[in-house]
């Protein structure tokens, strides 16, 4: 059973994952508005993945005898200066989320809560991927600069991303 303090921290992270989903959906809408359908697709898939992250916290709190409580989700930014600006924001945001996950791990260790620590390890690995994929696109966009042809190619590439529901963990 999770402690009250851990329950509160996990509920807070559930909210942060919902905010991430909201932020990326807002970026998807921005890309749609500037006719970059591939970028919009990538962000839409990202928003769906963040919902999966949120539900992992939801399920874990319930399964570990805690009580899920949902707070208000902050409204995200709506406009960005360029695709690079949006992806630099994404990269910074993922670094922030990594910090939040690391703090949760610190709390689990402090409380000798091995189950929660074990649950969080999936997120520790996931954050390495999240940061790497955002940074990869930042670097590509820096290379492309203002070249329309290059932007078209990146848009085509990001349009290939598909959402796949992660397999349920073994019981
Ligand atoms: Fe839920 Fe993008 O980390």
Detail the topology: elements first, then pairings.
Blueprint: H1 4-33, H2 37-63, H3 83-110, H4 114-144, H5 148-158
This protein binds MU-OXO-diiron.
Main location: cytoplasm
Protein name: Ferritin
Family: Belongs to the ferritin family. Prokaryotic subfamily.
Q: Could you describe the 3D structure shown?
A:
This protein has 171 residues and is mainly alpha-helical. It has a single domain (4-158), classed as Ferritin, core subunit, four-helix bundle (Ferritin, Up-down Bundle). Helix content is 74%, strand content 0%. The chain has five helices and no strands. The protein has helices at 4-33, 37-63, 83-110, 114-144, 148-158. Helix 1 (4-33) packs antiparallel against helix 2, helix 2 (37-63) runs parallel beside helix 5 (148-158) and helix 3 (83-110) packs antiparallel against helix 4. The longest helix has 31 residues, at 114-144. The two termini are 18 Å apart. The relative contact order is 0.16. The model has no long low-confidence stretch (mean pLDDT 96). The chain binds MU-OXO-diiron. The site of MU-OXO-diiron has 7 residues, from helix 1, helix 2 and helix 3.
